[in-house]
Input
Amino acid sequence: MFTKCPTCGSLNVRRSSMRAPEASAAPRLRSPYRCRDCGARFWVISRRASYLVGLTAIAAVLGAFVWNLGNVPEDPRRASERAAVPVESVADTIKRAERYDPVAEYKLAHLYATGNGVEGNKRDAQKWLERAAEHGSTDAQYELGNALREGSGVVQDYEHAARWLELAAANGHPDAQYALGQMYHAGIGVPADSAKAYMWFNLAAARDVPGASVQRDALLRSLTPAQVLEAQAEARRLSREPAKRAASAP
Output
């Protein structure tokens, strides 16, 4: 299997050396890689992890086989009572979603998308995701914007993608900040603007989004000192906005 850069899609990648802070903090089942084309540094699952996953799957199959051999059929009443618990939880989520609760709307979108507790329905999943985004769910705004940007499950629409990603990014969503930086850098859905791209990459890098610091630093050569200072000042201002809103919330 070929390792592909998640930032630019290049296959020109190589193993990266482990940094000192990562030696104790990074999971041992992942290995660092670096893209030779864009410079992004990212992590991939190591071969050791793949072997462990395979052994775990084999053990699970054997365990299930042994369990089925000696399993006594469960009391149907207990089974129905336990099955009713998630149904009640879904019903409660639907009630809250119908009362315009963005958290419940976002959760319901995922339930319909996965068919967990309800019959899977992509159209309903999209409807509740849009409602959650409109009612202020930052995660929903990012997912909707990213889906529109990639044309995943919806018609590709860069203009509306930029709108939703900008809302999520302004609300402090780090992945939305990185995605918006890419759009401003490439001029997709928004006018190309290296200063704004630098600002959004700077915010994403502050939240440790992989590749953000590389993209940010690569833009420095295309900006004047004055533009850099202005972009950094705007990044500082935006970084404080979510904390201010949280402090003023009832």
Observations:
- The two ends are 51 Å apart (CA to CA).
- The mean pLDDT is 80.
- Residues 1-69 form one domain.
- The chain is about 65% helix and 5% strand.
